[in-house]
Amino acid sequence: MQSLFNGLVQGAVYALIALGYTMVYGILRMINFAHGEVYMIGAYLSVVTLSLLTALGFAAVSVPLCLLVSLAVAMVFCAAHGFTVERAAYKPLRQSHLLVPLISAVGMSTFLQNYVMLAQGKAPRDFPHEFRELLVSRTFEPFGVRVNLLELVILGGTLLMLVLLHLFVTRTNMGKAMRATSQDMKMASLAGINVDRVISVTFVIGSALAAAAGVMVCMYEKNTCFDRGYLAGLKAFTAAVLGGIGNLPGAVVGGLLLGIVESLGIWLLSPDYKDVYAFIVLILVLLVRPTGLLGEQVADKS
Amino acid sequence: MLVLDNIHSAYGKIEALKGISLEVNEGEIVTLIGANGAGKSTTLMTICGVNRVKQGTISFKGERIDSLPPHVIVRKGISQAPEGRRIFPRLTVIENLEMGAFVRTDAEAIGKDIEYVFGLFPILRERRQQLGGTLSGGEQQMLAIARALMARPKLLLLDEPSLGLAPIVVAKIFEAIKGLNRQGATIFLVEQNARMALKLAHRGYVLETGRITMNDTAAALLNSRRVQEAYLGA
Predict the structure, then answer these.
(1) ipTM value > 0.90
(2) Which residues of B touch A300 (CB under 8 A)?
(3) pLDDT score, position A195
(4) I need a labelling partner for A30 at 20 to 30 A (CA). Which of A92, A198, A207, A274 fits?
(5) Which residue in the set A173, A189, A300 is minimally distant from B70, CB to CB?
(6) Cα–Cα distance, A13 to B214 (Å, whole number)
(7) pTM of the predicted structure, to 2 decimals
(8) Is residue B169 part of a domain?
(9) Which residue range forms the structural domain that includes residue B215?
(10) What is the pLDDT of residues A254-287, one digit of tens each?
(11) Are the C-beta atoms of A150 and A135 separated by less than 8 Å?
């Protein structure tokens, strides 16, 4: 039970990041390799914001408020990063072969990593202790599972964002336009949809979700570092493929499944191979269902 | 209303339109007929801004539109039901219609227009919560036309609305097109089914490998030996 719960928490985070991969893939048929870096930048932004708020004396006023402010700052600035990355590195290549923006994405990923390393140094940065303590120190034990408040915040926050995203894509005109664009981009523009704007919105939303994940994980793991985006991004990408890339519920299912498998693997087998379990599951699922668990049938382009 | 003047446009690397000029006046049904690969769809995609103009000008209501992006051209009042229908397969019928009205913000009038197109094609009302991809070919064609109408276009472009449909369905759709025109819609119809198109239209153009070769009233084209031999199988 305990490892199931831990897996759920980890999986929720993968799901949040995976959504960004899958949304971008759904529309542009490209993998935004720089997405993991945006997640890492989100973690840094929250650390920096909290240090700043503490220095200015706001931490004494209200710790939870400071946390919320730093989350908001991270989400907004990461959204701006996502927007800029797309405009600078992908949009000029819209007319080229699909592999070209992919290479540009790899370059962007390296660039962002190095830019954070130069600005923040090679050593990991700790999440300010007093803020973390507020959430981690409160623990509960329902049904014999040890749970702290932070884990509940991660689960609750993820759930809230999933619900908001779902409402956005099913209820708002922009959300529907996003789905329409992912199904037939040419027709979307013939219907009067500004496709470039839809793409920007996609990057903005995906990046904001990744930032939220980055902040929460940074609290969970106590610190962050310039190279943290790589593995998290890779895992989340695996989750997206596992669920069927391009499919929003698939990203969530894939993320949760991956988190749980990892956690069970650690418990049942050995923690040494933590990062291997995810990819074993990926290979097994793709052998049976090449389109992923909830993948779209290939032949529905009517 | 719509004037194409000496339009050159490429489809990939092939020059598909080699200097075509044509005109659609307000209230008319004008048809463009021609064989497969003559450049009919390219013409429509060029008007809509999806294909770039290499040379020549397109103006709509006296304003140059040949360098505008597609979504701006829709706002100017031109919408298209494209070849192959291109229904959004995983949006419901209602959502497809809403996407047709994407450029509009008058929610109340949009609701009324949805009722209007349901009146035009009652089967769509029954299917309204179904995904676009699950509709039959005829239903998809009706939805494609309905979706184009949802933009409240001043000029409606239709690309092969008869393609792949049973004759009885085609008759129904052509009846609806005629009805729309009677209510004042201006229509530019591209068709391979030359006989039906010419019976419906006021005027017609014949397109052959990227050039307009004939241009007359629909009745005159129907009676022309050249058209009869080449397109009407007489």
Answers:
(1) yes
(2) 89-90, 133
(3) 96
(4) A274
(5) A189
(6) 65
(7) 0.92
(8) no
(9) 1-77+188-234
(10) 999 999 999 999 888 888 888 888 888 888 888 8
(11) yes
